[in-house]
Amino acid sequence: MLFDFFPSRVLTIYLAKMFAVRIIAVLAMLVLVLMMLDLLGKTGDILAVEGNGEAELWLYASLRVPQLIARFLPYSVLLATIITLAGLNQNSEVIAMKAAGLSAHQILAPLLLIGGVVALISFAFNERVVTRANATLSAWEAVDYAAVPEDPDARANVYFSDGGNVLMGRTLDGIGADSVLTGVTFYERDDAGMITRQITAERATFAAPGWQLENAERFSVATANTETFDTLVVAEGVELSQIALRRVNPDAEGVAELTRSIEALQGAGRRTSELEAKWWHKFSGPLSAVLMPLLGAVAGFGLARSGNLFIRAVIGMALGFAYFVVDNAALAMGSFGGYPPLIAAWAPFFLFLFIGETVLVRTEE
Predict the structure, then answer these.
(1) Is position 251 within any domain?
(2) Do 319 and 79 contact (CB within 8 A), yes or no?
(3) Domain count, the chain
(4) In which element (H, E) is residue 173 found?
(5) Which structural domain range is residue 169 located in?
(6) Where is the secretion signal located (predicted)?
């Protein structure tokens, strides 16, 4: 029986259902409260744009809620673990299960099973929903909550170097040869770095080579003269490879897309440690839902009448939050090369897996 982690079908369903309901309840409470607080800070910015109204507020909420769910789902699992096990302990149900011959691991097995299911759901949700919401919200925030860009991958406030000259654009849409710049400004500079000419246009397309400006206006600093052109080609040194090697947002890209971005950057000799750590974390992050029942398990054991139940709950919560602190610190270390990407993403998970298992075995097994 000690090696059968699910000795009772009825008990497994009972614990799993209880745990799942508490996860959903805690997550709903956290998301609702945090969304209300977020709207208090953002409503003014959204409604300040002419034409925005209630529909835009609902749009913002629909884009922000997936982010909150993804971020606080592991916390919800941790809190649900403590609430579930503390309740079972206080009602002497844990004592009854141990008296029936169940080990601590067998009591936790249904919770770990639900944690695994939550991890799979979290990974799929991140890939299919959260990445798209992040991309759209980032593009919308970049234009200060004006019209939502049709292309969520559009970039705002871009600039490219053409030798000593600089090409700038308010937005960049499209991919490859179909890239389009809007709100274009091109600065021509001399060898001393001083601006000699400023060329502005509302739109520019890739001209292979260079960028063709439409209805351009050129201002010469030395003469203070202004000239207009129907079309004008500038920045012939700005190639498509510079456009492709854009600033990658790992939170807005799925595993497959982020893999391609990393390969492109590596092919161009760019540093990708931060992106590789985020790539690995797309797998290790959701698995934290499996880890939380183990870290919060300390709240479920010991005698409730001894007065230590609250202390045990605090210890379980501290272990869980310590994991998130170490996880974020490891990712930060990996972003500037302090840790290899694989270590940065996975070391906190295995470290706290061993800590949780050690605490459980030493105190209960």
Answers:
(1) no
(2) no
(3) 2
(4) strand 165-173
(5) 164-236
(6) none
